[in-house]
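Here is one such tokenized protein:
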Amino acid sequence: MKYCVLAVCLVLGISLRDGWSVPLKSVLLTFPGDIIKDMTDIELADSYLKKFGYMETLERSGFQSMVSTAKALKRMQRQMGLEETGELDKSTLEAMKRPRCGVPDVANYQTFDGDLKWDHQDVTYRILNYSPDMESSLIDDAFARAFKVWSDVTPLTFTRLFDGTADIMISFGKANHGDPYPFDGKDGLLAHAYPPGEGMQGDAHFDDDEYWTLGTGPAVKTRYGNAEGAMCHFPFTFEGKSYSTCTTDGRSDNLPWCATTADYARDKKYGFCPSELLYTFGGNANGDACVFPFTFLGEEYDSCTTEGRSDGYRWCATTDNFDRDTKYGFCPSRDTAVIGGNSEGEPCHFPFVFLGKEYHSCTSEGRGDGKLWCGTTDSYDDDKKWGFCPDRGYSLFLVAAHEFGHALGLDHSSIREALMYPMYSYAEDFSLHEDDIEGIQYLYGPKTGPDPSPPQPDIPTTAPYPDPDETDATNEPTERPVTTTTRPVDPTKDACKLTKFDTITVIEGQLHFFSDGHYWKMSGSSEGGIKGPFSVSEKWPALPAVIDSAFEDLLTKKLYFFSGSRFWVYTGQSVLGPRSIEKLGLPNSIQKVEGALQRGKGKVLLFSGENFWRLDVKAQKIDKGYPKYTDVVFGGVPNDAHDVFQYKGNIYFCRDRFYWRMNSRRQVDRVGYVKYDLLECSDSSRTYY
């Protein structure tokens, strides 16, 4: 709740009388865009107690009656773990002002007593939109980790849907956002969720007037540059100066950038920060960057705008004329973007003038609450444009984990250390409290075995999915096989006891699993099953023990093997290599190829880190326009997959023990275990945790 914020008395001058300094008449300064709640402490308490259910009691007859304020205060104090005085004391008032969940503490619905819960264990969720505060992939990851908090201690699994109606529909919104419970602007109510059921029940809403981060300040994931999508490192040093935000210094194109290590001069690692000059999200422009100036309803705009929208989200046209082309996208928030005020999303402008004085950094001048703010033009006095400066923000992961607890049927806890305590607090080393575990296991029971981690998706694309077409065979030179010492094969070596494979690929229609100089084959037929182990050096003598990736060219039947920065090509018993992967046109910064995916017309996608390149197999070179981001083209899969391959018409992305299966519509339709689903290992080999 916000209480008496943003209206302050400024002492503009003094006069001398009888030798004493006395202030002149105070002037009440109201910032344009400020929401002022002129409430007394008693009014605040009355509103709080009613909003969160403390003033009502549900009688057996079904009629609600009001309780006394003193009794309501005691109920609230008991819930918050405060001393039960029944009085509006300092600690109680401070608790009422803290940011919190919007779900009532004394709800009209029941949880444990009524056993409101889902009647199935595979709960689905769908992310309807994104906040401009964070990259969509970071938001996806925060939600996936939040669901995993609960799947780690219950039999529940969580599957993401990209269309249709899911059990839990997740959305960001501001103020009146489509349900009977509006948000209240920055701070105060952070989010709310509904208990399990049909319709809106189970849904989770997040207040987009809040500043969403990972809880420790701006979470800035870079694009392009040479840091392969690494996070910005704040502070970093550039040309002897320390930077705690992205900067345009050193560039003539006005693109904000940051170093991804502490010292740019030493490491030369950098990437570009979120900017409408690089990309947009949502809309209908497929992520194209803004074009400035652009025309909208006959007016020309040189920056992102909220004109034409009632929800306050900033947007731009991605061509020079929206009236003609109707192409647009939403503008991502820069790390220096202000929060709230009347210039939401615009960056601070330094220096700016306030009451005739020039400011080169954020200030709390003119405010009584100590909050830092800035002007978003060169003169606040002239333009009255302002906003709050970015702070640590609220951890989307922690808030989401709390709200998803409600969506699963949990009410608030009175234990301060519990996740389901109604007040927000940041915990760097989060672990689920025993009270939370007891509550969720009361509803769904304890975990009976490992479940696959949920996907870490991004927005899926609707691009076509081509099948390989035949092209001319290649004529590559071959060399005599290299003779190496054959490593003995341990016949007792069990693939089902391995925790991870070096790589997985398909050769002659069979799945091959490689690990430490050995491989196993899985035919997938009814007479199949696991065969092996076999010796890599016996079958392919030139290869090292560790294989990072491999693929079979469907046109020539040649086998390509990658290990570190080298690759080999086998044609029958003849081998070419080892050769450097730079010969294929891959940059020297690539340490290894982690996946290979056949495409049409003799093309193969090579994956490394968060990127992939398209190889023209016949020409032995990388096509123009690459690399591309994996999570942009293949939405819904982990962008750090260590095995990528195609099998029976589906694409598999593997990470650790799990795989994400993508169908021909580029939708993740299954997340499962490599060993139990692909290798068909028995349940007795499962590792419980």
Q: What stands out?
A: Residues 136-151 form the longest helix (16 residues). The radius of gyration is 29 Å.
